[in-house]
């Protein structure tokens, strides 16, 4: 996973490549047209020479008005030659993907919106590659797959409960900000925890925020390798710390070591201090097991700073 800065630079490189391609295509079209229509090439050459004559007159004190008139006539002649050859007036202009910045990445002195759009797409591609379900959406979360029978622990059906949870998550994503609370989704395998977490990620990304997804096992393994690689700068940890929203999936599946506990505490603590929300999912439903696995120091930081939701029902992946 890339940091925000790395993602921004990748988006800028893509825009630069896009601009280069547009210019090259326009130049190829221009050369082909001029080869097929000599009169068009002559008119273009005359316009270029008229432009140079105007620049020379302005620089050396010549007859600027006469040079400007000559350039106007050359422009008109080129327009007429282009039309007679069967081409639109702008046929040889680069077809830039972004009409605002012409694929420069800058608009009115600021990064263009197209840079952020590309960065969001690149992040979505990362999440899709790393997550088991791809980037899910609220519209594909089917509450009818949950039982309509009363769940004793809830006093209502799992279906009614999950419908309320779905609406809560939709509202959470819509109003997401640095002030949003951390969430902890707890429950057995296949109950939709990752689906809802990724649906939030999809909506929050669409709202212009940066989102990073990783499984706990992948994070622990990667950070362990970086810890023993003295040439590494812990890029994954930096990316996880600075993302506007972090999805930390499947807590409890990672290999626990003192290093894992230390890094997890650093990550959780840093994100809380910098007001960057995190969504955790886990199959662990007993808080005492959480404390035993992650130590009281980490568990209290995690559980105490989260709004917890327990998922009910049967494994959705086993249903046809």
Which spans of ≥5 residues are poorly predicted at pLDDT below 50? none
- Care to count the β-strands? 9
Largest sheet: 5 strands, parallel
The CATH H-level superfamily of the largest domain is P-loop containing nucleotide triphosphate hydrolases
Distance N terminus to C terminus?
34 Å
Q: What value does the average pLDDT take?
A: 88
Order of helices and strands: HHHEEHEEHEHEHHEHEHE
Organism: Subdoligranulum variabile DSM 15176
Protein name: DNA replication protein DnaC
GO molecular function: ATP binding
Domain AAA+ ATPase: 179-303
Task: Sum up the structure in keywords.
DNA replication protein DnaC; 56% helix; 2 domains; 11% strand; P-loop_NTPase; AAA+_ATPase; two-stranded antiparallel sheet; Rossmann fold; alpha/beta; 320 residues; ATP binding; IstB_ATP-bd; five-stranded parallel β-sheet
Protein architecture, described:
It holds the Pfam family IstB_IS21. GO terms for molecular function: ATP binding. It comes from Subdoligranulum variabile DSM 15176. Residues 179-303 form the AAA+ ATPase domain. With 320 residues, the protein is α/β, with parallel strands linked by helices. The chain folds into 2 domains: 4-111; 131-318, P-loop containing nucleotide triphosphate hydrolases (Rossmann fold, 3-Layer(aba) Sandwich). It contains 10 helices and 9 strands. The protein has helices at residues 4-36, 38-60, 64-84, 113-130, 158-174, 193-206, 216-227, 235-242, 258-273, 287-304, and strands at 106-107, 110-111, 150-151, 156-157, 182-186, 211-215, 245-251, 278-282, 306-310. The strands form 3 sheets. Strands 6-7-8-5-9 form a 5-stranded parallel sheet, sandwiched between helices. The chain has a two-stranded antiparallel ribbon with strand order 1-2. The chain has a two-stranded antiparallel sheet with strand order 3-4. A hairpin with a 2-residue loop joins strand 1 and strand 2 (110-111). Helix 2 runs antiparallel to helix 3 (64-84) and helix 9 packs parallel to helix 10 (287-304).
